[in-house]
Design brief:
Elements lengths: L28 E7 L2 H7 L9 H4 L3 H19 L1 H10 L4 E6 L10 H21 L4 E5 L6 H13 L5 E4 L14 H10 L2 E4 L15 H4 L1 H15 L2 H4 L4 E4 L11 H9 L11 H5 L3 E3 L5 H11 L4 E2 L13 H6 L5 H16 L25 H7 L1
Parallel strand pairs: 1-2, 2-3, 3-4, 4-5, 5-6, 6-7, 7-8
Helix pairs in contact: 1-5, 5-6, 6-7
């Protein structure tokens, strides 16, 4: 952890791509992988407020038991850099863009306390990136329930700590991201030209989702779906056209059912109170990760929204992660250039990752023609 007055910034270094199990076809960046900061978890326990965790509230006892067991099982994966690196090498991941575990957003707590936990988390992530600049880039977290503090911490995380973006939830303790009070945060993110990774934490009204882990299986992509609708129809994407937002879990359900928003916008005046352009024109500005589990859905996203808007994601180290994520992309019916973009090229561009120049193969040695043997003078005389 970093506790100095001015923490060391994560170093910006060209990536020395690791190859533990032989050469691979593509450079890879995982946009969706989580870190837990124990010091922040300890600090939040001093809050006078009760935690609001939808994933726990809208779950049955069977799900809570599985979640408790999973947290014990993956704790080292969330906290040990060495174990994380071994996993990356085994699974062909050159770089992780690490972000906090969603359970550490802490938007429900006192704003100043959440600001303190955000500082601890961001310094932990920056330290990991500083120690391993060729393997990690960092995404910050901010106390979004208090936008002024969020703006201040975002600027510190980017300018002082060297983090490349920010992870936010799909709602702020139940409030929609399109509310006017959050506009300064989006303005600052656009000004800093950083990536926003939007990751849900259950569904805010999950009364029908308590059984069968539906609060995550259905609820996580559902909360993203609702959030993206609000960003579009609430005018956030129109007001800040240069935002770079990556939506987890393939963007939720909206990218697969986008025709309905254009139809509603055309058919009803109450859908046109804020935006005038077709809603899908704003949807095209967003980016989605690869956590969709089936090739046909990945191929659809690439065809409909462009392979330049899809980024490799794993959801490390949770049980809802995409298994063998690199292989999943490399075996999809996509052109090699599209696979390369999805696996690492797009993330490198958005996160400003300095990739090493490709080493060109040495030119084959030129074979010199054998020199003609000089004729001896005696033979020349005889022939004369």
């Amino acid at each position: 952890m970093l506790f100095s007055c001015r923490p060391l910034a994560a170093r910006s270094a060209p990536i020395a791509v690791r190859r533990e199990s032989g050469p691979r076809r593509h450079f890879t960046v995982d946009i969706h992988c989580h870190v837990e900061t124990p010091e922040a978890a300890a600090l939040i326990k001093t809050s006078d407020r009760q935690p609001v965790e939808n994933a726990m509230i809208f779950s049955n006892e069977a799900t809570r038991a599985v979640n408790r067991k999973q947290q014990e099982t993956i704790y080292l994966d969330l906290t040990s850099v060495e174990k994380r690196l071994r996993h990356m090498d085994r699974n062909g991941i050159d770089i992780q863009a690490i972000s906090t575990a969603p359970g550490q957003y802490y938007y429900w707590a006192e704003p100043e306390l959440t600001h303190q936990t955000a500082r601890l988390i961001n310094e932990n992530i920056a330290q990991i990136c500083h120690d391993h600049p060729d393997r990690f880039v960092g995404l910050a977290t901010v106390p979004l329930q208090e936008p002024a503090l969020a703006v201040r911490e975002l600027e510190r995380a980017v300018k002082d700590l060297g983090l490349r973006g920010v992870e936010i939830c799909t709602n702020v303790d139940g409030a929609e991201l399109s509310e006017d009070r959050f506009r300064p945060f989006f303005a600052k993110a656009q000004e800093l030209d950083i990536l926003i990774f939007m990751h849900p934490s259950g569904f805010t009204d999950g009364r029908r989702l308590s059984d069968h882990y539906f609060i995550n299986v259905i609820g996580n992509p559902l909360d993203s779906t609702v959030a993206v609708h609000h960003l579009i129809f609430g005018g956030v994407l129109e007001r800040y056209p240069r935002l770079k937002i990556v939506v987890a879990h393939g963007g939720g359900y909206l990218p697969a059912y986008s025709g309905r928003i254009d139809h509603g916008h055309q058919a009803r005046p109450d859908c046109r109170r804020v935006i005038t352009r077709r809603p899908t024109s704003y949807l095209k500005k967003l980016y989605f990760d690869t956590i969709v589990f089936t090739h046909h859905q990945l191929e659809y996203l690439a065809k409909q929204w462009g392979s330049d808007h899809i980024l490799l994601g794993t959801d490390y180290p949770y049980d809802m992660a995409l298994p063998h994520a690199v292989h999943f992309v490399e075996t999809a019916a996509l052109a090699g250039a599209d696979q390369a973009a999805i696996l690492g090229g797009n993330a490198a561009r958005l996160l400003k990752i300095k990739r090493p120049a490709a080493k060109s193969a040495p030119a084959p040695a030129r074979k010199e023609k054998p020199k003609a043997k000089a004729k001896s003078k005696s033979k020349a005389k005889r022939r004369g």
